[in-house]
UniProtKB/TrEMBL annotation:
It comes from the Eukaryota. Keywords: Membrane, Signal, Transmembrane, Transmembrane helix. InterPro entries: Autophagy-rel_prot_27. The chain crosses the membrane at residues 206-230. It is a single-pass membrane protein. This is Autophagy-related protein 27. Residues 1-26 form the signal peptide. The keyword Membrane applies. Pfam families: ATG27 (PF09451). It is found in: Membrane.
Length: 283
């Protein structure tokens, strides 16, 4: 009897651990995708759509658990950077098997569309959480925001939803409209503070001059290293004597000083003391 009870307790703990691990694995599965950095020119534009903001503790995530757009007889539900959650007003449509089924319709995808066909609302999954990608809207104007694209592969056709998250630091606006781009490809626009980037790396840098200096220094280092190896292993020199053309390098500072001193004398002309050092000669 004790063995049976112990077995069932172990089995219960096993299923509890499995449930915890499954839940942990399903939390924010694409949060890394919604935290992206793009290098444009000499600046790094970092976007973190899921980071909390003062007035938006969940970032770009809808606090209702989903965004909703209704156009004519078509209704679209979607969530950015996570799966949808319906605490109220869940989708009621047929053919929802790949997005939670009839009892949990909309709970296992990130974008779901319902169209009224013959008096019935028919669902189509157009976005999955695991197939979400993020890209910059305009490389010429990185401040504009990012595009979050989610896709779904079905038996009949492939679908996608692209949501442009436009930078607006003052308010949230939209989505109000839905644009059809292809057979089963759609686009929507959302203005949100999370679409604004954090910019790092100001300034133009060294440009071509910096690149040239790096090449020269690398060549000079290679010259010293190759010369030292040759003089040590083939000529038997040790210590400072391994440096190639050591006499030239030791005299270089003095030669440089003399060169600049001669240039100064050339542009300033002879000094007063130099002119007076000669005595007049009478013939």
């Amino acid at each position: 009897m004790k063995i049976t009870i112990s077995f069932f307790n172990s089995l219960r703990y096993y299923f509890l651990i499995i449930a915890i691990l499954h839940r942990a694995g399903s939390l924010n599965p694409v949060s890394a995708v919604c935290e992206r950095s793009f290098v444009v020119g000499n600046k790094v534009y970092s976007f973190s759509l899921v980071s909390p903001l003062p007035n938006f503790p969940h970032g770009v995530l809808s606090e209702d658990g989903f965004y909703k757009v209704a156009v004519n007889k078509t209704v679209l539900w979607f969530q950015l950077c996570d799966g949808m959650i319906f605490n109220h007003d869940p989708p009621r449509c047929v053919d929802c098997l790949d997005c939670g089924g009839a009892s949990h319709c909309g709970m296992e995808c990130s974008a779901l569309m319902a169209k009224n066909i013959g008096g019935y609302d028919v669902c189509t999954t157009i976005g999955k959480v695991t197939s979400t990608t993020t890209n910059i809207i305009d490389n010429q104007n990185p401040h504009k925001g990012v595009i979050v694209k989610m896709t779904s592969s079905g038996s009949e056709h492939n679908c996608s939803l692209s949501v442009s998250v436009i930078c607006d630091s003052n308010r949230v606006l939209g989505p109000h409209s839905l644009e059809k781009l292809g057979t089963c490809d759609y686009a929507a626009v959302l203005q949100h503070p999370s679409g604004c980037a954090t910019i790092n790396g100001h300034g133009k840098g060294w440009g071509w001059f910096g690149t040239l200096m790096i090449i020269v220094l690398c060549l000079f280092g290679g010259y010293l290293l190759a010369g030292a190896v040759y003089r040590h292993f083939f000529l038997g020199f040790h210590g400072l004597d391994m440096i190639p053309n050591l006499d030239f390098w030791t005299r270089l500072p003095h030669r440089t000083q003399s060169f600049f001193a001669s240039l100064v004398r050339k542009f300033r002309g002879p000094t007063e003391g130099h002119r007076n050092s000669y005595s007049p000669v009478n013939f």
